[in-house]
């Protein structure tokens, strides 16, 4: 099996590559990533010398480069993680989200049509369903929940999902889509809630909580997400959407307090800042379909996963300190200075 994994120098893609190379020693994995601010080649250092792994620095929006790669590799599958992934950045500058998330997806699928493929898998998000009210804990996102997006990011991911389903219906492309809830774990870029709070707390810097901190996210350890995608690409039904989530809803403020406690830092570091525009209130996945059809269940409890994650950031200070000392400083100052 030869699999092109796009966006493999980012958070979830890299964890997926590690999982696949370990579990399937006879598979070839080709990572296609253009190394945006969120892509980090040092993340892939542990597999760079693996003879079954190849890294290619190109953009999924570059049709010529993508077709050339397909001619060289004749992939059996494509798993598309490549995306602009941060909601706050999409609010500041939507355009690149449309290019990468929508156009890039179309280019990849055109290549799949042209050269033939066993499976194209689109890594999508629960954010395409919009949000749920806080006072209706009985409601969850199912695969039938209507698309109802809030941010330029989620709209671009929803646009891509619709294209994927259209390529299946119109051209018969063998596709699957997964829509996962919030991931956490190693190699999570420090702009996102959990790694940002860990890094700031370790540096005794303010912990910026948007609004009242009451927004709820449904957290899943990244390895559990990778295992779910592994099951879908091998055993999932073509043309289907699978929701992935572990019934682990938590308020943002509670996550931040847990991080303070685990690191022995005072809650006085918590600073309430102005809210995100269009901020989704609550995400909550109903994972019944993937459980019933593919037997998937999350394996990591949040209490253990957050400890492992914090320990990883303590053990890998160089990884995130290098990131936050560069261009990220300008981003951080611009985003948080006047909040
Ligand atoms: P990330 O921002 O950490 O990584 C994205 C990667 O894609 C980076 O390596 C970047 O260099 C690469 N990339 C961006 N534009 C590219 C382009 N034009 N061509 C090639 N490579 C490009 O993102 P992540 O958090 O790992 O998310 C991966 C995927 O999973 C995304 O599609 C995202 O929408 C989806 N997702 C994320 C979460 C989450 O909680 N992080 C949850 C559900 C779904
Ligand atoms: O639900 C899946 C989605 O989860 C993915 O599709 C996205 O790619 C991923 O980035 C994530 O989106 P969120 O917007 O939920 O994640 P983020 O880490 O940016 O924020 C989580 C919550 O924390 C959200 O309610 C906003 C809040 N927040 C975030 C930051 C960065 C803060 O209160 N302060 C912060 O500084």
TrEMBL record:
Enzyme class, spelled out: lyase
NCBIfam families cross-referenced by the UniProt entry: dTDP_gluc_dehyt
CDD domains: dTDP_GD_SDR_e
Keywords carried by this UniProt record: Lyase, NAD
Species of provenance: Blautia faecicola
GO biological process: nucleotide-sugar metabolic process
EC numbers: 4.2.1.46
Catalysed reactions, as listed in the record: dTDP-alpha-D-glucose = dTDP-4-dehydro-6-deoxy-alpha-D-glucose + H2O
High-level lineage: Bacteria, Bacillati, Bacillota, Clostridia, Lachnospirales
Domain NAD(P)-binding: 4-309
InterPro entries reported for this sequence: dTDP_Gluc_deHydtase, NAD(P)-bd_dom, NAD(P)-bd_dom_sf
Gene Ontology MF, one: dTDP-glucose 4,6-dehydratase activity
Segments forming a coiled coil: none
Keyword NAD: yes
Similarity section: Belongs to the NAD(P)-dependent epimerase/dehydratase family. dTDP-glucose dehydratase subfamily.
Gene coding for it: rfbB
Protein origin, superkingdom: Bacteria
Record Pfam families: GDP_Man_Dehyd
Protein name: dTDP-glucose 4,6-dehydratase
Cofactor(s) named in the record: NAD(+)
